[in-house]
């Protein structure tokens, strides 16, 4: 389902002509709820970067929300994955930033910087897998969510639209129930089936039957 189809469905079901700004608001609110409730492939990105010698900080991408993994790649293409720790651990484990070596740990220092430990003793290529908010279907026209799981997006947007227009409680409850059902199926996919072979047990999963 593309955005034009989504807008038409919202207005047909609600039997109301909303403004473009209102339709965008309903859609973006639904996307935000979905993206914070389940981790789907469309929320993942991969980027290469560079650790510099004697610099124990690494800048994150502008759209960075959280990391899945951070690896150092040596000249032979071998990967060494760093363990994610909090800043307290980093400061205690690596109190002297002048002590250098191959980084083994990293932590979120602030909203756009990662702290490394120990401080890199050379220039290293990095590979960061991270979560981000993808472009909204409002501006993109089509998205993974609209194409692969439009039931969650449509019902989520309908709940927002009906609440906005102070719709009948039973109608709001009906579409909210349909949204929850669709979101449940999406969680089985994103947090279940797509994570059965995840290497790190720390990643959130739901049981798959």
Number of helices: 7
- Spell out the helices and strands N to C: HHEEEEEHEEEEEHHHH
**Class computed from helices, strands and strand pairing:** alpha+beta
- Spatial strand order of the main sheet: 1-10-3-4
Number of strands: 10
Low-pLDDT segments: 193-198
Span between termini: 28 Å
Strand content: 15-25%
* Average pLDDT figure: 90
Shape designation: elongated
Output the radius of gyration.
22 Å
DSSP helix fraction: 25-40%
The major sheet is characterized as: 4 strands, antiparallel
Q: Can you describe this structure?
A:
The strands form 3 sheets. A 4-stranded antiparallel beta sheet has the order 1-10-3-4, with no helix packed on it. Strands 2-8-7-5 form a 4-stranded mixed beta sheet. It has a two-stranded parallel ribbon with strand order 6-9. It is α+β, with helices and mostly antiparallel strands and 209 residues long. Strand 7 and strand 8 form a beta hairpin. It is built from 7 helices and 10 strands. The protein starts with a helix and ends in a 19-residue tail after the last helix.
Q: What is this structure, in a nutshell?
A:
The protein has 209 residues and is an alpha+beta fold.
């Amino acid at each position: 389902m593309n955005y034009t189809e989504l807008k038409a469905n919202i207005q047909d079901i609600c039997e109301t002509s909303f403004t473009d700004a209102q339709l965008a608001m309903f859609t973006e609110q639904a996307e935000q709820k979905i993206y914070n409730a389940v981790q789907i492939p469309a929320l993942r990105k991969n980027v290469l970067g560079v650790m510099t010698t004697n610099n124990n900080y690494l800048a994150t991408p502008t759209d960075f929300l959280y990391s899945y993994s951070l690896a150092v790649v040596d000249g032979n293409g071998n990967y060494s994955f760093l363990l994610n720790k909090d800043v307290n651990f980093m400061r205690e484990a690596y109190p002297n930033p002048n002590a250098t070596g191959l980084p083994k740990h990293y932590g979120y220092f602030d909203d756009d910087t990662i702290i490394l430990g120990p401080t890199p003793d050379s220039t290293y290529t990095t590979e960061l897998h991270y979560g981000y908010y993808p472009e909204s279907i409002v501006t993109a026209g089509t998205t993974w969510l609209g194409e692969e799981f439009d039931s969650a997006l449509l019902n989520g947007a309908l709940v927002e639209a009906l609440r906005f227009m102070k719709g009948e409680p039973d109608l709001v409850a009906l579409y909210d129930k349909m949204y929850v059902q669709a979101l449940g199926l999406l969680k089985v996919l994103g947090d279940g089936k797509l994570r059965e072979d995840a290497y790190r047990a720390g990643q959130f999963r739901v049981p798959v039957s």
